[in-house]
# Entry
Amino acid sequence: GMRMGALLAAEAVARGARVDGLICWDPCASGRDFLRTEQTLLATSYGAQQLGDGSVAGPAFTYSAETVADLSALKLEPGPTPDSHRIVVLARTDGFGMAAVRKRFASTPVDWIEVDGQAELIDAYPDTLVLPTTAIKSACEAVGGCVDGPTTAIRLQPEMSAEVLHLPDGS
# Structure
């Protein structure tokens, strides 16, 4: 999982979910950290305020007060790991939020892979984001190292153009 997805995946593993491996791409150290970042991105990128009703608004989503309470309780806790269970953390090279994540995994055997491009993907306006193809390749290789499957290499071919669909009503 990426960011909050990594935190949720780690939570599922800590609660006993059976997996071949855990890949955490730029994981949040806690739900509170994630929500704080969402608030900051909304305020600094768009100048928008929070609603004041216990919910948290981010650049793309508004999380209800109930969801905020549930997410706020989560902390990245890798839990016990069976010998066959590989953990990989794809860490930002800019270091944003990684000190807390490294602390959480301090006593757990983890493969750390530093990847570039997370800021251009996550911390950017939607119309200016850039897909970090090298990081995506690293994530694919990490997944491939955790599961049995075909050994044929996956070639990433980024699309250089896109088409916008316009409906008959002009939307």
About this structure: Residues 11 and 17 are 9 Å apart (CA to CA). Strands lie at 21-25, 56-57, 62-63, 86-92, 111-115. The chain has a mean pLDDT of 84.
